[in-house]
TrEMBL record:
GO molecular function, one term: ferrous iron binding
Organism per entry: Delftia acidovorans (strain DSM 14801 / SPH-1)
CDD domains: PCA_45_Dioxygenase_B
Pfam families: LigB
Enzyme nomenclature, EC number: 1.13.11.8
Highest taxon, organism lineage: Bacteria
Record-linked InterPro entries: PCA_45_Dioxygenase_B (IPR034937), Xdiol_dOase_suB (IPR004183)
Keyword Oxidoreductase on entry: yes
Domain (Extradiol ring-cleavage dioxygenase class III enzyme subunit B) ranges: 8-281
Protein keywords: Dioxygenase, Oxidoreductase
Keyword Oxidoreductase annotated: yes
Stated name of the protein: Protocatechuate 4,5-dioxygenase
């Protein structure tokens, strides 16, 4: 039986990828942020999964206003880094896991969640920046990510976007799907995006440290209550792009404690830093009890 052993949460700010690609990770501005992921990189080496199920949002690369799936699962064998206007990031291609991805799609759709099946797409910074943060810089010519990755794209760009409750319930369905897969696989689920930030308008540059850290507290201790938070609270407190945090609820919903007597997951690492570009960066690693 496959199993989800841990969940990872991190922001996916595009400037973080640029800092790594341009050799600026050691600059005084960026050094405190990357220091917060040193523990995480060692943890990933020590707890290398067989597959990563990575929840992110596309930024008008694979999808556009012409076609906006609410939930889209990648079932391809591989994915190339996207050209977001300045060329693709110099990172390795992403190798998929078509067998597990197809099984999850089948199971989750049978649990009454409508997924878009994507057999070909490029993946943008929403997916590659979390991989770089957790794995370190990888060379596109000689490097490789440590394991296959299943991309799972969520629309948090164009309203209407899914509710936190819908995302939380989807995470539960994904866990059931993984656990019904016959092969013995160690799966991690990653939720990305956020934290508080707004990129335009009168509140451009908004960061709400107190709200962000309260969100992290609730994500750990009371995710079911957090799932009930309405969209307007995210926008009011965390800015227009803060709505990306509903994707973290997919990863949290996939943890063992939300449907039974299992204890709260162990907090292996927690980190918060501002600013990175004009965004607050949050990061958590939660481990299921053995």
């Amino acid at each position: 039986m496959a199993r989800i052993t841990a969940s990872v949460y991190t922001s996916h700010v595009p400037a973080i990828g640029a800092a790594m690609d341009l050799g600026k990770a050691g600059d005084p501005y960026w050094q405190p942020l990357f220091k917060g992921f040193e523990h995480s990189r060692q943890w990933l080496k020590d707890n290398r999964p067989d597959v990563i199920f990575l929840v992110y949002n596309d930024h008008a690369t694979a999808f556009s206003l012409d076609f906006i799936p609410t939930f889209a699962i990648g079932t391809a064998a591989e994915y190339q880094p996207a050209d977001e206007g300045w060329g693709p990031r110099p990172v390795p291609k992403v190798v998929g896991h078509p067998e597990l991805a197809s099984h999850i799609a089948q199971s989750v759709i049978q649990q009454d969640f409508d997924l878009t099946i994507v057999n070909k797409m490029d993946v943008d910074h929403g997916l590659t920046v979390p991989l770089s943060l957790m794995c370190g810089q990888q060379d596109a010519r000689t490097g490789a990510w440590p394991c296959p990755v299943i991309p799972f794209a969520v629309n948090v760009v164009q309203y209407p976007v899914p509710s936190g409750q819908r995302c939380f319930n989807l995470g539960r369905a994904i866990r059931r799907a993984v656990e019904s897969f016959d092969e013995d696989l160690n799966v991690q689920i990653w939720g990305t995006g956020g934290m508080s930030h707004q990129l335009q308008g009168a509140r451009a540059g908004l960061i709400n440290k107190e709200w962000d850290n309260r969100f992290l507290d609730l994500l750990i201790e009371n995710p079911a209550g957090l799932a009930k938070m309405p969209h307007i609270d995210y926008v009011r407190e965390a800015g227009s792009e803060g709505i990306e945090l509903v994707m973290w609820l997919i990863a949290r919903g996939a943890m063992a404690d939300v449907d039974g007597p299992a204890p709260l997951p162990k907090v292996n690492h927690r980190f918060y830093h501002v600013p990175a570009s004009n965004t607050a960066v949050g990061h958590l690693i939660l481990e299921n009890a053995a």
